[in-house]
Input
Amino acid sequence: MVHFTNKRICMNRGFWVVLSIILVSSAAFWFRQIYRQRLPDMPEVILVGTSADYPPFCFKENGQITGFDIDVAKEVCTRLNKKCELRDMPFELLIPQLQNGSIQLAAAGMTPTRRRLELIPFTTTYLSKDPLVGLSLATHTPPITSPNQLKDLKVIVNQGYNADVFLSKMTISKLVRLPTLNDAVQALRSEQGDIFITSLNTIKPLFDKFGQETFSFFIIEDTNESVALALSPLYAKLGDEAGVIINKMMADGTIDKFKEKWHVQ
Output
């Protein structure tokens, strides 16, 4: 009899736990629906998220955030006749901030991978053929000239970027994930790692700063990246109009002018 009573108490507790979970989930769902209905179709100030540590796409110069992607985002805001406000944050926070509407655009050299497209929309890609490269010190012995050598090396990547995704699919015994480009370059130059995997367009600023003769690099075949503005799914009208503007900027030569300005291929 006691055993039966205890079993019934446990069943009752389980029922209330399940009911509580259903009620909380339902409340969260309706809160999101109400919140979404209260959002304007087109905000007066467009909040643009970035991670200002990835030259030439987005970085700080004399205390101001600038770069190729920043110029693209600002031009989109100008053509929408809206103010643009930049929000600097860690790269891994950009997608969650877009998802909850805290920012409406993200300009951070971001590639619309299949996984990211499952989470957020993107504009048309306005930059392509930006392959990954392996960057090492010219003094490294033996020279690193092929991805086939990476397995037994200490490999540096920026956490969350495409190089990280690419290398996660390989058998790398010593993968060092660092948050910023500066951290990665500092680790490479202080020989805390053998090689840094990044995109081709990011290495020219490093050559300008430290001298091309300091480094050796090779291109990793079949790793072409593309770049687009990331969009908040909560602002569909803004996303549609931003996409149209990007297409016009590609057609009228604006994107090409930005590429020339920032020496982007």
